[in-house]
Structures are given as C-alpha cells and as structure tokens.
Design goal:
2 domains, 8-stranded parallel beta sheet, Rossmann fold, globular
C-alpha cells in the first residue's frame, strides 16, 4: 500500500507534467473513453460544508480511483484549508486498493494544470498581465500553471482582505519571481488572463472592467447557486467547458444566465478536449473574450494518479 502526503506529491509531480496529463484526460473525456459517474454531493447541515464522492475509470487503464472531498466554507476564517480530500487508487484487474493519495494536493495540481492547458491554447500568445481572485491553495496552483505557460510580467491579486492579498503577492514574487500587486478593479483593463478560485455566490467583477481579448479561467464555483462570473461576461464570451453535461448540473456561472433566459447552453463553443484535438478552433481573434468554465472532473484526478503510480513503480524497479 502506497501512502503519499501533500509534500511528497508536490515533490513528485511538476506542473509541466501535470499539464501534459490533463491533455490526455480531456482527450479521453472527449472520446468517451472515460467512465465518470455523476458525483455524489451531500450538504452537511449546520456546518456550512459539502461532501463530494467522485469515482473515475478510463478504458484499458490499470487503475481506477475514488476521490472523497470535504468542502468547509467557514474554514478559511478559521485559518484552515477550504478543502480536505483523499484519492483512493485501486488495481482495476484485482479490485484491491493500492494507494491513498492526499487529495488536497491532487485537486490543486490538476485544477491548476487544467487552467494552464486552457490558458496555453486559448489566451493571447503574448499575454503579459494576469489576475487571480482568491488566495488559497487553488489560487497558488493557478499562478504556478500560468507561470509555466506564459511569460507574465505582473499578476494582480484580489482577496477579501488586504492582509491575505499582501501575503499572496509576496508568495508570488518569492516563488515565481513575478511582480505582484494588490488588485484594483480599474486595473482589470490591462489584464490578459484572469483566474477565479473562490466559492463566491455573486460576480467578482463587472464586464465593463474587462480587457477585450482577456482569457478567463473560472474554476471556483461548482454548485448551481455559485457565481463568480457575471451574466454579461458569459453572454459576450466564447465559452469552453471541461464537460458539457456536468456543467449543466453544477456550473452556476452558466446555469444562472440560462435560467434567466439570457443565455443558453446551446451557445457553448465546445469542450476543452475538442480544442486540444483540433476539432474546434480556440482563440480566433485578439479581441475576443474566451471563458474556460470548469467544475472539475474525476478523470483529471485519475490522470494525475496514473502519473504518480507510474513514477512510483519506475522508482521501485
């Protein structure tokens, strides 16, 4: 039995490797090679928490996984992580559990890698300025992924408190050598790539504040009532999703404008796997807004688990 904690996983997997793994994951999802049952979501009354159970298998894979996630929305105010989770890895041919992996790091790396992949193929080639909404573990992996795929000169940090924004700015400069400033809404006009990594229930910015040609990775909201992105921005964006059917159930950023009959899921440009495969175009002009909406998919966790198991097996041999 292999048991890996957060520090071990972070040392074992590079963001470059994770982005390559996400390419495989989204292609499998697009080609219907992935078996991903609808995830089970259970609200925990009185504790401002949600529990998620997410299984995944892809055809001819040596493993399948079951991921269990606990999201406690009041944790950041307590100085605790928003998300706790674990990924159980099973031998597909025998059914026995072969590994327990820290789910917090798996989730952060694979979510950041998905945004990195989307940014690489959807953002402007010469993107120089980024913005991040949120300062948690997900936000850290988003910035890491951006630093891998784009030569950013500056990142604006938006947070609920000045203290957390300042701390995150220092983290960005110390870790990646990128200049970082506390964000102001009137500075969004200069931003080329935005990542939103919050559990917000109301839009984080106004559409008129955006730079024409900006690329947005919206990864924080994963329930129908959550909304990081405003309706006007959705209407005026080329929308690419991780998985169309899952977003219809969970992506509040898209469900809310659809329910208000101001936008339709028929207007989705396509899935990220289709762009990777070249089945549909990504960015076509420098002044179009592209929006990658992701609620997360267990095929991403499986892809990262596969990468980790391959490395462990190689090292043991």
């Amino acid at each position: 039995m292999v048991i890996l904690n957060k520090e071990q996983i972070n040392k074992l997997v590079t963001m470059n490797e994770a982005i390559v793994a996400m390419k495989t994951a989204f292609v499998q999802l697009n080609n219907k090679e992935a078996i991903i049952p609808k995830r089970l979501s259970t609200d925990i009354p009185g504790n401002s928490a949600t529990s998620l159970v997410m299984p995944a298998y892809s055809l001819n894979n040596p493993y399948y996984i079951v991921k269990v996630v606990s999201v406690n929305y009041s944790n950041p105010q307590k100085g605790l992580p928003l998300i706790h989770s674990s990924v159980q890895v099973f031998d597909a041919s025998k059914g026995n559990m072969v590994a327990t992996l820290d789910g917090e790091s798996i989730t952060a790396i694979r979510t950041g890698a998905a945004s990195g992949l989307a940014t690489d193929i959807l953002a402007k080639k010469d993107a120089k300025v980024g913005a991040i909404f949120g300062t948690g573990i997900q936000a850290k992996s988003q910035v890491e992924a951006l630093s891998v795929v784009k030569n950013l000169e500056k990142i604006l940090v938006f947070s609920r408190t000045k203290e957390s924004a300042e701390s995150f700015c220092n983290f960005i400069y110390d870790k990646f050598g990128i200049k970082a400033n506390i964000g102001e809404k009137d500075l969004l006009k200069e931003v080329d790539v935005i990542c939103t990594a919050t559990p917000s229930e109301k839009p984080l910015f106004h559409h008129q504040d955006l730079n024409p040609g900006v690329h947005i990775n919206a990864i924080g909201s994963f329930k129908p009532h959550m909304q990081e992105i405003g309706i006007e921005t959705v209407i005026n964006s080329k929308v690419i999703v991780d998985n169309r059917e899952t977003c219809k159930i969970e992506a509040g950023d898209l469900i809310i404008p659809a329910e208000e009959e101001k936008w339709s899921f028929n207007l989705i440009h396509g899935e990220l796997g289709q762009v990777v495969l070249g089945e549909i175009p990504g960015r076509e002009t420098d002044d179009e807004i592209t929006l990658f909406k992701s609620v997360g998919n267990a095929i991403q966790d499986l892809a990262l688990a596969n990468l980790i198991m391959e490395k462990i097996n190689h090292d043991s041999n």
